[in-house]
Amino acid sequence: MKTHYLIVLLLVFAACNTKPKKQDTPKEAQPAEKEMKAVSVTKEPFGTLPDGEEVERYTLTNANGLEMKVMTYGGIITSLQTPDKDGKKGDIVLGFDTLEGYLQDVPYFGALIGRYGNRIANGKFKLDGKEYTLAKNDGPNHLHGGKKGFDKVLWTASETRSEDGPALKLQYHSKDMEEGYPGNLDVTVVYTLTDNDELRVDYSASTDKKTVLNLTQHTYFNLSPESETILDEELKLNADTFLPVNTTLIPTGKPEKVEGTPFDFRQPKTIGKDIGAKNKQLEFGKGYDHCWILNGKDGEMKPAATLYDPNSGRVMEITTTEPAIQFYSGNFLDGSLVGKSDKKYVFRSGLCLETQHYPDAPNQPGFPSTVLNPGEEYHTTTIFKFTVK
Ligand code: BGC
Question: What residues pair up with 124 in beta bridges, in sequence order?
């Protein structure tokens, strides 16, 4: 009896001991499993620029069928298909069917922004006592990198291997004094469409001369492609303060508490709720066009924004290492641009949530620095996660 008992015990022990090995097996099987799903990166020609350069468009598809199209011109995201609460896919970004659409006077649809996201006052800044002059392409100010910013250049694209999902690496060499900025700058942006239904954007850069840099992404979202505007979508921002601006949308330099103002998005509320309130700041921006200072540490991953569309059930959560987010409610769209599926892009038909450093930081010593020195590596990450509820 005793020997039997011992044998049973030994067998149980042996069985328990083999368990971890069994758990290992699915991990080993993963690559084969992944190959069976439709994860892919494909490439197609997308037209020719006026100077004869060829533009390509890449399609990234993740394991769950999320699909994103990106072109080499401007690193522009031309479409992003995600499912709604009933599993029906829809394109949640504004844009055009053809390259020609993007070559009109388009306000940065889907594009990578550089060298400097948002405005630099009077198109001027100083570094070590030397003044640099930039294009004034927005009234008296410089906006989004100038006349030919990173949104209008051709990026070199290559597929990269990522454990997390299909990825596309975009690279651009910006020459010393390009658009007035000092330093030869090498920029890399990697878009990964993870199998966790996230779009991860990793930015990195290095320079050979002291310069300023503030990269971001300028996609206009509308989580309800059928809806005319984004006013019924609910937004939550992880920010106790924002940056008030002057009449030309340059921050005054003094952050203000959002509490008790239309700028309070600490609890989710529809964008339409307070956008029409009588408020000087809303008047200056013609709606929301401001920078919110994120709670949490600069350089560490933290929640930035959550956008929820009750109509489709789509949710987009943004996390970032950046210290701030520019929320622009599409106030300058006026119906003159006609996009995909012949949709007229009317007033507030899309919104931008641009993670970044503060506007005009090169002129405002109180703001976190945007200076990049030779030998330093610029690196920021922003993740857009797509779910439904
Ligand atoms: C700015 C707006 C500007 C828009 C251009 C946003 O990032 O904050 O003021 O009009 O970009 O599309």
Answer: 133
